[in-house]
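Colleagues,

For the teaching module next term, I've prepared a clean inverse folding example: a structure given as tokens, and then the sequence designed for it. I'd like students to try predicting residues themselves before seeing the answer, so please don't circulate the second half yet.
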């Protein structure tokens, strides 16, 4: 919850669970409704020097790639720590997802290309019943699907990125980027699954 103390200061208090990199961060971006209108705003909050800011590290079974924590805070910050205009916090936060979604498409394309390279090579060198396994319909279909999906993912990634660069300040592109991310990641999963089938001997 956030509330204005005066025209220069804002009182911010509450908690934030599953906060990525909280145990090692020097700053946090916190979303909170600003009283009295309760419009959602974004604030950059230093982790020390402005009041109570406690971080409890969280430990997840099998997840060692990132830091994570529970943050409890009760701070007074300058009003200029607000990101953007009042009430634009959530909108701006959701906009940042667009770039990440397009980046996921680029990563998916790299995954598909790598799976295609390995599968194509193995289909030529692995011989079963006197023929390279790429000669059999099932594996030929798998490899050709990977190739088609690689071209398709690259196309929608390039088109989506061009549209984003041209219209990001004029139109809401969240639905477009979400669809690109969804289809690209599913194509990458499909390519990975088929590459494992080919390489592990299903062919």
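(Answer key — instructors only)
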């Amino acid at each position: 919850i956030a509330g204005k103390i005066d025209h220069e200061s804002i009182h911010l208090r509450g908690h934030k669970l599953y906060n990525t990199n909280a145990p090692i961060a020097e700053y946090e971006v916190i979303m909170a409704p600003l009283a009295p209108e309760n419009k959602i705003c974004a604030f950059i909050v230093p982790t020390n020097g402005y009041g109570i800011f406690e971080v409890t590290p969280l430990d997840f079974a099998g997840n060692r790639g990132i830091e994570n924590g529970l943050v409890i805070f009760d701070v007074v910050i300058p009003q200029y720590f607000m990101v953007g205009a009042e009430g634009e916090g959530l909108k701006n936060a959701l906009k940042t997802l667009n770039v990440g979604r397009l980046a996921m498409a680029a990563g998916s394309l790299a995954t598909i290309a790598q799976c295609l390279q390995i599968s194509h090579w193995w289909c030529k060198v692995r011989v079963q019943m006197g023929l390279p396994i790429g000669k059999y319909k099932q594996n030929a279909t798998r490899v050709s699907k990977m190739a088609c999906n690689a071209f398709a993912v690259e196309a929608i990634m390039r088109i989506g990125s061009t549209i984003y660069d041209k219209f990001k300040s004029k139109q809401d592109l969240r639905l477009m980027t979400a669809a690109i991310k969804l289809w690209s990641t599913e194509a990458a999963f499909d390519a990975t699954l088929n590459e494992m089938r080919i390489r592990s001997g299903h062919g």
